[in-house]
Amino acid sequence: MKKFTPILWLQRPIHWSLIFGLISLLVSCGASEIPLGPTSLNSRYTEEQPTLSGNGRFLAFVSNRNGSHQLLMYDLQQQTFVRIPGLNRPETISESPSLSYTGRYIVYLTSDQGRPVVALYDRAIQQSQILTPAYRGWVRNPGVSPDGRYVVFETASRGQWDIEVLDRGPNVELDIPNGAAVDGPTN
């Protein structure tokens, strides 16, 4: 009877490949695998619900970077993030952004006492206001017209999803390109 002896030259490559495989796995799980900087649009976190401004310059989206669920705005021309102070409040979720023509107005969903509400952020004055504070039903999918006057959203106030159009009024400061003609309100 012949005795079986393992071949060492075959075991060594398997051993070293296992070591190199584990090392490469550990290195690839490191925090610095994706270069992140002030101008990087994508990150290793979830980015979702993108929307473009009417002029194509600004991008708003929801991100989980920085350890919290927040709405971010990115200037595609300058390749930098735009500061939007006061929009992302602690312990609230902002979702479903929509931008006006130049990105002055951002309409989004947020929570107020546990219910979703439609809010509008004005970048010119850096303030948010809730547009549906006393709405009886649930709301979702808000959108803003290019000039910022009209806001649309879905509501379930009648027990089914319907579309509502909210007119912010003829006296709002419109978001229009410089030099564009503005038609007066029609009655």
TrEMBL record:
Family: Belongs to the TolB family.
Species of the source: Nostoc piscinale CENA21
Taxonomic path: Bacteria, Bacillati, Cyanobacteriota, Cyanophyceae, Nostocales
Coiled coil (UniProt feature): none
Protein name: WD40-like beta propeller containing protein
InterPro entries: 6-blade_b-propeller_TolB-like, WD40
